[in-house]
Amino acid sequence: MLKNIDPLLNADVLYALAAMGHGDTMVVCDANFPADSVARATVYGSLLRMDGADAPQAVRAVLSVLPLDTFVDDSARRMEIVGSPDEIPPVQREVQVEIDRAEGKSWPMTSIERMEFYEHARDAYCVIQSGERRFYGCFIFRKGVIAP
To answer: Keyword set for this entry (predicted)?
Structure first.
């Protein structure tokens, strides 16, 4: 057991998040996402899991240790709804709350078309699949830096 570490952050997830460097991206996805096949194409090369967590819980845990990149405008991205790219479903609104809480201010989350999301996910450092069952619970985050 570790103090002040969210228990959803198992050893494999912590290792991957710590190993990432500035500018690397990671995916938190829902249970419907083709996570295993996409994860095989990533730098980490295998799927990480948070089965007992919904997307907001998983994002809260990840962002408790992962700083977002302040040098780009798209350090937090969400998968667009097919045919309705401007619609923001409840799961994405809930994740926006977690992002804002982690950063201590309103933080923009940009959108990315579904098939483009898959391509960016394959280029990510790692993929973490949550137990989220709601559609479009898929997000990409870019790691920032921690000041000295």
So the answer is: Isomerase
Which residues neighbour 72 within 8 Å (Cβ) at sequence distance 6 or greater?
A: 142
Residue 6 counted as domain residue: no
Q: Are 38 and 118 spatial neighbours (Cβ–Cβ below 8 Å)? A: yes
Tokens 């045919």, residue located: 83
Global pTM reads: 0.97
Banded pLDDT at 2 (limits 50, 70, 90):
confident
Provide the H-helix boundaries in 70-137: 90-103, 114-122
The string of pLDDT tens digits covering residues 80-120 is 999 999 999 999 999 999 999 999 999 999 999 999 999 99
Cβ atoms of 58 and 28 within 8 Å: the answer is: yes
For the chain, what is the largest distance between any 2 Cα atoms, rounded to a whole number of angstroms? 45
Q: pLDDT-derived band of residue 134, with 50, 70 and 90 as boundaries? A: very high
Q: Which residues form the catalytic set?
A: 22, 69, 118
Distances (CA, A) of 23 to 38, 71, 98, 125, 136: 19, 9, 20, 10, 24
Domain enclosing residue 65, as ranges:
11-142
